[in-house]
Design a protein that fits this description.
By secondary structure, the chain is an all-beta fold. Helices cover 0% and strands 48% of the residues. The protein has no helices and eleven strands. It has a six-stranded antiparallel beta sheet with strand order 2-1-11-10-7-8, with no helix packed on it. The protein starts with a strand and ends with a strand.
């Protein structure tokens, strides 16, 4: 099972957890959870006017072995207006635009989508059951 919680944070709201959204999916091959602005395609949706987040920005996908991976999907622009970071055990690593990284099995962490033009972010916490 992969459990996600999402909070959108802007300037003065840093540290606030109000309005958190949650989603989960079984660790079955082919299971998918998406994050973006398009509510019809994404289980967790950022505000529609937050254009630094693509319509479908992040994809969490379960592989054939039950392990989950994160992909920063390429959008319509050649260069993104955001950065994506994976934080696990206090260590932060950037995720490449169009790149895929594995999530730790039986672990927790956070994926942070940061607006390059202002103090806004989409924070997606995850817990991947062992």
């Amino acid at each position: 099972m992969l459990e996600l919680t999402m909070a959108t944070v802007s300037g003065a709201d840093a540290g606030a957890t109000a309005g958190m959204l949650m989603a989960d999916a079984p660790s079955a091959p082919g299971s998918v959870l998406r994050v973006g602005r398009d509510r019809s395609a994404c289980r967790l949706a950022a505000p529609e006017d937050w254009l630094f987040v693509s319509r479908t920005h992040l994809e969490f996908r379960c592989g054939p072995d039950g392990a989950w991976q994160l992909t920063w999907l390429r959008g319509s622009q050649a260069h993104p207006s955001s950065e994506v970071r994976l934080v696990v055990d206090g260590r932060e690593q950037p995720v490449a635009y169009g790149g895929t990284v594995p999530l730790p099995r039986g672990g927790a962490g956070e994926v942070v989508v940061v607006d390059r033009t202002g103090p806004r972010s989409v924070n997606v916490g995850f817990y991947h059951e062992a």
